[in-house]
Write a structure and sequence with these properties.
single chain, 160 residues, alpha/beta, five-stranded mixed beta sheet, 5 strands, 35% helix
């Protein structure tokens, strides 16, 4: 190598939230509410599942990004529990998805935009706060919030 030429810098690797935001953009392009989710192995950071909303495409009200990611991850892992996994999702999960996250035993939940209207974690049902909730993941909200909220605002602005 010539002394005058520096090695090419390695481009930064996308974070799990970057990947969830990418899935949200793909969902929006399909005409779905732009929500994306990814599940990673907490120890290795290995990506296990990615998904975006597909409720309209599938005609299925349960085809939320979180539900699809959990189904993919449990299939890939060959087990119904994801105890050593973290989920990154662009919007605060609804009550249905929060319950599924609890049942799957997700270790940690990171989410982007807060959802005062339909959220089920910090708002509304607050699923993890109920005595009947068997597993409460660690929750970190507001990660990538401005970009995630912007995708949602743009999507709904275009729909009106």
């Amino acid at each position: 190598m010539n002394e005058d030429t520096a090695p090419e810098p390695t481009p930064p690797q996308p974070t799990p939230m970057d990947l969830a935001l990418r899935e949200a953009r793909y969902a929006s392009e399909r005409g779905e509410v732009p929500v994306g989710a990814v599940i990673v192995d907490a120890a290795s950071g290995h990506l296990i599942a990615t998904a975006g909303n597909r409720t309209e495409e599938r005609g299925d009200p349960t085809a939320h990004a979180e539900m699809l990611a959990i189904r993919e991850a449990t299939g890939n892992e060959g087990q119904p529990r994801l105890e050593n996994c973290d989920m990154y999702v662009t919007l605060e999960p609804c009550a249905m998805c929060a319950a599924a996250i609890s049942f799957a035993r997700i270790r940690r939940l990171y989410f982007g935009a807060y959802d005062p209207k339909s959220g089920g974690v910090e708002h509304g049902a607050k699923v993890f706060e109920h005595a009947t909730c068997h597993h409460k993941p660690e929750v970190i909200g507001g990660m990538g919030e401005s970009e995630a909220a912007g995708l949602l605002k743009d999507f709904f602005k275009d729909k009106r």
